[in-house]
Amino acid sequence: MTGYSQALKTLIKESGAGVGDRVAVSVEGESYEGLLMPRPDIGDESCLIIKLDNGYNIGLKYKKGMEMKKLSAGEGGLGKAKSISKLVFDPKKPPVSLVATGGTISSRVDYKTGGVYMLMSPEEILQSAPELANVVNLRSIESPFRKASEDMEPKDWAVIAKHAAKCLNNGDNGVIVTHGTDTLHYTSAALSFMLKNLHKPVVLVGAQRSSDRGSADTTMNLICSAHAAISDIAEVGICMHGSMNDDYCLFIRGTKVRKMHTSRRDAFRPINEYPLAKVWPDGRMEKMNKNCKKRNDKEKATADTKFEEKTALLKVYPGSDPNVLDYFASKKYRGIVIEGTGLGHVPTQNVKTWIPQIKKLVKDGVAIAVTSQTIYGRVNANVYTNLRILYHEAGAIPCEDMQPEIAYVKLGWVLGHTKDLDEVRKLMLTNMAGEITTSIDARAFLY
Amino acid sequence: MVWLKAWNMVSMNYKKLGLKVGIEIHQQLDTHKLFCECPSSLRSDAPDIIIKRKLHAVVGETGTKDQAAEYEEARKKTFIYEAYSDSTCLVEMDEEPPHPMNMEALRIAMQIAMLFGAKPVDEIQVMRKTVIDGSNTSGFQRTALIAKGGSIDSVKIPFINLEEDAGRRISEDESSITFRLDRLGIPEVEIATDASINSPEQAASVAKKIGMILRSCHVKRGIGSIRQDVNVSIKNGERVEIKHVQNLRAMSKLIENEALRQWNLIEISNELKKRGVKKIPRDFVVLSSKLEHTKSNLLKKSMNDGIVLGVRLPSFSGLIGKEIQPGRRLGSEFADHAKTAGVSGIIHSDELPAYGITEEEKQILSRALNCGEKDAFVLVVARPAVAEKALDRVLQRAEQTIDGVPREVRAAEGTNTRFLRPMPGAARLYPETDIPPIKITKDFLGDVKSALPKTLVEREKELSKVMPAELARQIIRSRNYDLFEEIISEIKTDPKLVATTLTSIVKDLKRKGIIIEMSKDDYKELFRLVADEKVSKDAIPQIIEHAKRGEIRNAVKRFEMLPDKELKKIISEIVKANQGKPKKEIMGIVMSRVSGRADGKKVMKLLEKEMRK
Asked: Which of A229, B56, B97, B587 is the most buried (most CB within 10 A)?
């Protein structure tokens, strides 16, 4: 009842009714009967929401003399899942664990109130994709935390990494991580750097459409993810729709993937590299990239989760003020990734040049790594004078063909292990988890 | 026929029959789509975007058994959506959340609600109505209750809803259904009466009045822009929904025939109960071997790749052949259901001998199925799996016959109806969380009220004062009515002339086989020229006949008014050359010479003056 105005709260309280109860309301000579609904978090708080018998919700403006009577208690269970048939996984299928972290994929709508609730039990996940039982034995579903992906923090990555390593070392063929989509590619990068000696697939998956609708992408994404999780592609990757059709998913390396659209199903695209594989919901798989590790079930993975949280990601633009760097310096930041322009430029020869500040920070031991806001392509340290100034004089690190978000996660992880700038430079320029592509596939552009 | 006589006796008294009818009308509004800015126009050219989707299990999905079954069926299908890169966007494709509601659509819908005397709700909450037939890319239809408590005559219209239209079904095959997204999202207002209408004539009259009010507002015209469904039941019958009633003339006959069907089904049910039928055993017998030597071409042809499967219907003899609507028997109902399994029809014992099947063969089949004298049987010929499914459907329908009238959705077919699908359970609605509730403010309602159009009934009365009542009636009901109103509001010209032009003149030309190319703007230009006295109104039919689309100015050239000087000269010449002839004759000669390039009254005046000389 929290969303209602004081007058309505009082009216509701006096009637003794709660959400879901059947009530009769009369106002200005008109009378209405229906179920009392909670107030949506937007709109007019002095409008009472009633679900009429024909299923429609309407808002009734509070007016003096408005009366409410509780007619009968609701069926109860608002917000709880209706009884679901027990569905048991086949222990003969390959064992896989699921880590549910929140996001659209593990939420569902309560059909009465419209409220969003978390899906928790294996049975509930199964309800969105019953076909999963034909593919894997989903033997555990755990939820270390529940967060929207925009609220995710580096320490959450460590929790997922440790949990995934534990599952893999307990005999799972692979791990599926359900996750919100906004920062899914940050998490996939973090797991790529944190999981060492990985020889099994770790598949991250989200949904762009909530599972209450028949058109949800959840189902196919989950099924394809299950196929990817038991495949021999021993990589961390994101597995979601490859097109606007419900035909196949793309399994894309965790360090070469980016959310490229706010709302389309096929928002996740590979950057500077071909996808690892196309995966069809019937289990067919087309490997598209030779550069991938093979499964080896004898190996044990470890989670090396040290991460320097004093790492930042900045963007330069015409008119950008280099003094923002001073702020980070004053807050004792140890590393900054700059999204440069084009081949990796920052303003160099104008009044607002970034070069002096960068020089100063590097001298003080802060790692400055530069990527490009073009997203696609590789930065270059030599082609223009201004590039030579930035990388050879000022000491910034040119981040090859890493996209900004990936470079940010990598720098944080590297700084978690060393503060020595020479060492940092060396590690940033060493391919650790497929984040650096020596030869860029021409077909990968806008794939 | 006995039943016809009995029917004529009851049908005289619909009240006694307990006839209850409700009407449901969906009318598209003439504005862009409800939740995006795409145009609300249907296209026939080839789409350039094709999207393939599946329907997925929905968490916590429950609902009635029928729905669940339908849903299972739908999950097997692939839905193909056709779209256009230049007139559909990501919203229709369910690749982008809906935009805020089209307030122009809400304004029109609210006007309609007010014209029915309905009371707007204080806050609108858009709902999602689950649809499982694939007609909407999202898996639900967005719909909102905007007003309640309206009426038309004495019939109540409890609720008025504003909703988005569904995708347009283009084709269907065994594994897929194709929809076009040009229609998805077009705003439509839903007007549903309660079931208090109690005669077919009243239904047609109420539907007509609702239509008149809808057309007073800014709504789409033409085929497909309005859909009319009727709900019909009689005492001891069941509510049956008839989809897509084409026109009002068909409506009352359809209702009458549906009442007749229900009445006959109740009669059959009573008879079956009298005969003691309770259940029908599912004893299917393969009869192909009994018909090896048949001369029936129908059987021979279909037995090539199929079997003949039969079932006994105990005590059904004489009832399957009973006519329940003009030209439709109980057997037709069985066939409707069998067809949903993929057969082209059924053969039943009441119609045999027929189709080349002899009386002797009928007896053989009868014995093979253990039929007694009062029993009937039904045959289907198809592949074994299909045949079995088809007979199961027949059996299901036959068992419903014992109870009387099944609740179902039927499709209008001429003035009869055929089975479409079982009546779905109550649709599940839940809030559309992507669209914030819309507060209906006093300002908004003030706007709506101030621009409230006159109803067509009121308008007809007004127009009757400036033109003959019959002409007013015609123009109000004309397809060109909107154009008429536009012209007379924009151009100072005689409404009677405009009405005559847009009704009888246009009709006459069409009757002569002339293809009229005039656009709306051409008509406006024409009346502007007439108003400015650049063109004589007498030339209108000829101009319309010859005008090429968009080139009204060219068409008019030949008919531009003659300057007075020239006109006087012509008149003077003709008068001189026809000395002594009566005025009427000379007038005729002048008018044919100027052929529409002078106003008749003016010619007469000048002629009289000339002759007085």
From this structure: A229
